[in-house]
């Protein structure tokens, strides 16, 4: 039964990611928005649903610090592992002019949360600041997209189908990720793998599976803007949206290791992605291998 659930999880991730990419692309064409903006918002925020669920549940249970580890670990995996794999499968080459603003917001979000974690607390006021950052990002992204994106021919397909495909894809992705994480954990325990290794690998990457499925399929379909926008948007939303919401629900008392250890890796990932994107004009296969090797080093060290 466990093997069947594992297989069903994989199938759900594939078809959910395929539906999400197709639907999001159709929405972008209809509203004359760039695929990058759709990737940053609808796709990026949507694939962060597992992280949001975990963080809000932790906050309501009086364990808001779990939200920090969830978000930081997800941001590291999103860049080093998921973009690394996606770039190896299909080079993610995007003009720098389409990346600089959004990478800048990601770096700003990273710096902001690091500063907030230095005193060991993320207060409700900090939560308000983070949510405000998310609003500024969204307004800037949509306003800029409307100016930069040329008009295109609208398809004959009804918009409700595109939205249904997008939302349905998100739901299937979340269900698939849950099935895969639960079944993989059971299989790991059956083979005698320790709880620590399970936590650092299966569970840590588990909430990022929707991003992995979506970015991989987008890369294979040559929708590179959605593939990259999905990850950058997810990382921005994880910090501004998820930690902002969690802090508003329950102020976060953070373990000192988050600021002294984990934030260093989050920053290395964010800065590394930005440097590679600007120097190489995107993420060619060699950059993908570099990101994956860095993630392997991170897992080995922790």
Automatic annotation (TrEMBL):
<dbReference type="InterPro" id="IPR004837">
    <property type="entry name" value="NaCa_Exmemb"/>
</dbReference>
<keyword id="KW-0472">Membrane</keyword>
<keyword id="KW-1133">Transmembrane helix</keyword>
<feature type="transmembrane region" description="Helical">
    <location>
        <begin position="99"/>
        <end position="118"/>
    </location>
</feature>
<feature type="domain" description="Sodium/calcium exchanger membrane region">
    <location>
        <begin position="162"/>
        <end position="301"/>
    </location>
</feature>
<feature type="transmembrane region" description="Helical">
    <location>
        <begin position="261"/>
        <end position="280"/>
    </location>
</feature>
<feature type="transmembrane region" description="Helical">
    <location>
        <begin position="163"/>
        <end position="181"/>
    </location>
</feature>
<dbReference type="InterPro" id="IPR044880">
    <property type="entry name" value="NCX_ion-bd_dom_sf"/>
</dbReference>
<dbReference type="GO" id="GO:0006874">
    <property type="term" value="P:intracellular calcium ion homeostasis"/>
</dbReference>
<feature type="transmembrane region" description="Helical">
    <location>
        <begin position="125"/>
        <end position="143"/>
    </location>
</feature>
<dbReference type="Pfam" id="PF01699">
    <property type="entry name" value="Na_Ca_ex"/>
</dbReference>
<feature type="domain" description="Sodium/calcium exchanger membrane region">
    <location>
        <begin position="3"/>
        <end position="142"/>
    </location>
</feature>
<dbReference type="GO" id="GO:0008273">
    <property type="term" value="F:calcium, potassium:sodium antiporter activity"/>
</dbReference>
<dbReference type="InterPro" id="IPR004481">
    <property type="entry name" value="K/Na/Ca-exchanger"/>
</dbReference>
<dbReference type="GO" id="GO:0005886">
    <property type="term" value="C:plasma membrane"/>
</dbReference>
<feature type="transmembrane region" description="Helical">
    <location>
        <begin position="33"/>
        <end position="54"/>
    </location>
</feature>
<keyword id="KW-0812">Transmembrane</keyword>
<protein>
    <submittedName>
        <fullName>Calcium/sodium antiporter</fullName>
    </submittedName>
</protein>
<feature type="transmembrane region" description="Helical">
    <location>
        <begin position="226"/>
        <end position="249"/>
    </location>
</feature>
<dbReference type="GO" id="GO:0005262">
    <property type="term" value="F:calcium channel activity"/>
</dbReference>
<feature type="transmembrane region" description="Helical">
    <location>
        <begin position="66"/>
        <end position="93"/>
    </location>
</feature>
């Amino acid at each position: 039964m466990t093997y069947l659930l594992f297989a069903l999880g994989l199938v759900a991730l594939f078809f959910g990611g395929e539906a999400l990419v197709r639907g999001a692309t159709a929405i972008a064409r209809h509203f004359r928005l760039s695929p990058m903006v759709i990737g940053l918002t609808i796709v990026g925020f949507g694939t962060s649903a597992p992280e949001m669920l975990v963080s809000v549940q932790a906050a309501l249970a009086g364990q808001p610090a779990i939200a920090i580890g969830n978000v930081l670990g997800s941001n590291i995996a999103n860049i080093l592992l998921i973009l690394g794999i996606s770039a190896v499968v299909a080079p993610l080459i995007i003009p720098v002019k389409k990346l600089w603003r959004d990478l800048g917001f990601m770096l700003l979000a990273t710096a902001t949360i690091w500063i907030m974690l230095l005193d060991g607390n993320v207060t409700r006021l900090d939560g308000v600041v983070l949510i405000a950052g998310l609003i500024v990002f969204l307004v800037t992204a949509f306003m800029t997209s409307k100016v930069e994106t040329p008009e295109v021919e609208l398809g004959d397909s009804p918009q409700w189908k595109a939205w249904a495909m997008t939302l349905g894809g998100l739901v299937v992705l979340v269900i698939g990720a849950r099935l895969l994480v639960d079944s993989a954990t059971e299989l790991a325990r059956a083979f005698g793998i320790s709880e620590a290794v399970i936590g650092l690998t299966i569970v840590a990457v588990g909430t990022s599976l929707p991003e992995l499925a979506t970015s991989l399929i987008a890369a294979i379909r040559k929708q590179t803007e959605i593939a990259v926008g999905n990850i950058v948007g997810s990382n921005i939303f994880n910090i501004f949206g998820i930690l902002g919401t969690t802090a508003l629900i329950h102020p976060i008392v953070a373990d000192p290791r988050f600021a002294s250890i984990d934030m260093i890796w989050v920053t290395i990932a964010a800065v590394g992605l930005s440097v590679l994107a600007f120097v190489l004009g995107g993420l060619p296969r060699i950059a993908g291998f570099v990101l994956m090797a860095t993630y392997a080093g991170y897992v080995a060290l922790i």
